[in-house]
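STRUCTURE:
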């Protein structure tokens, strides 16, 4: 019995050392603040849009071989450039990769070529917990959108079961390393957003272990692009803090009023890194372009609104309301199906957006 306590203390010390070593390894792989700001000063300000082709109801229909639509993509990214955008954020599909990895990579390469043609930098997003459809992703013909319902066929990737079942993670790891590895040195890829809204769909903190693992898998491929994953709610909670600590560029979502966006922005400024608001803006008084864009300009935040062309996603419709049509006041999306702006004044604000001061703050002196 007299040996039990010393043994337990020794084991405890080994555990602390192992955890400290793991934390140190994670920290050593994250970009220094100096490197992050050098990158940001070179590429910013980023004026982006979360993009899904108007011909696709979700990312499965977007990236599957038989429904991949480069003609529509070419036309719409041309409109994006004309509207003043210089980036698109795009969700990928683990399920499409699982059945057609080589084909998906060829289509991603084609997409990047089209984007580059229109001077558009691409942010790829690998995983997503959002589940508007309340269904699992199934490869094949996708159902038609539900009339009058916002984003009615959007499904997560991977399934919630795979998020929490570590026996499924070897396939997820292979996917991350395959996609990031393929484009790790491709300058057409602007940023890797590894996981969209982890914890959505009722998963909560159950998604955090996979999000942490995804950073590790992606960093193992040594990409030239920065990595990020943005908190979408509960800013300042354990998940939000951990995601910010692991990110090269700190990102977040903010659909609130200008005052709310400013409050959230100030919270993430404490990390001393460039800020990317990867989902923002909606057409509600105080949440719209004239109100919110000046906040981003003041605090040197790059941003991506949701939705370019009104299409099968129906994200011009509001959250949680029924009976509205494309003729009613739009929630999101910027262009009519023929490319005409929903509100030309918004397009002018995008074209003329710039930071009010140089991007790097005076107190960013970390040269680690």
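SEQUENCE:
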């Amino acid at each position: 019995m007299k040996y039990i306590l010393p043994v337990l203390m020794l084991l405890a010390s080994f555990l602390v050392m192992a955890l400290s070593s793991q934390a140190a390894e994670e920290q050593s792989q994250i970009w220094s603040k100096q490197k992050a700001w050098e990158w940001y000063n070179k590429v910013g300000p980023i004026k982006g849009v979360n993009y899904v082709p108007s011909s696709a109801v979700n990312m499965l229909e977007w990236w599957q071989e038989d429904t991949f639509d480069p003609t529509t993509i070419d036309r719409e990214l041309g409109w994006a450039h004309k509207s003043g955008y210089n980036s698109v954020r795009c969700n990928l599909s683990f399920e499409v990769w699982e059945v057609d990895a080589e084909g998906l990579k060829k289509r991603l390469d084609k997409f990047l070529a089209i984007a580059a043609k229109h001077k558009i930098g691409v942010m790829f997003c690998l995983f997503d917990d959002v589940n508007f459809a309340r269904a699992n992703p199934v490869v094949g013909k996708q159902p038609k959108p539900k009339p009058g319902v916002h984003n009615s066929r959007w499904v997560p990737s991977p399934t919630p079961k795979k998020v929490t079942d570590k026996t499924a993670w070897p396939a997820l790891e292979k996917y991350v390393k395959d996609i990031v590895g393929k484009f790790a040195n491709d300058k057409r890829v602007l940023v890797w957003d590894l996981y969209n809204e982890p914890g959505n769909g009722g998963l909560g903190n159950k998604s955090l272990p996979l999000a942490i693992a995804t950073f590790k898998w992606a960093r193992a491929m040594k990409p030239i692009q920065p990595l990020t994953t943005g908190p979408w709610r509960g800013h300042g909670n354990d998940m939000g803090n951990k995601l910010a600590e692991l990110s090269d560029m700190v990102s977040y979502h903010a659909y609130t009023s200008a005052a709310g966006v400013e409050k959230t922005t100030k919270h993430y400024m404490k990390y001393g890194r460039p800020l990317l608001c990867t989902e923002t803006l909606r057409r509600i008084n105080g949440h719209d372009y004239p109100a919110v864009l000046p906040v981003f300009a003041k605090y040197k935040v790059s941003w991506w609104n949701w939705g370019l062309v009104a299409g099968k996603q129906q994200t011009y419709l509001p959250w949680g309301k029924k009976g509205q049509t494309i003729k009613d006041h739009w929630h999101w999306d910027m262009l009519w199906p023929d490319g005409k702006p929903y509100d030309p004044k918004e397009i002018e604000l995008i074209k003329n957006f710039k930071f009010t001061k140089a991007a790097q703050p005076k107190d960013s002196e970390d040269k680690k």
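REMARK: The CA atoms of residues 235 and 241 lie 8 Å apart.
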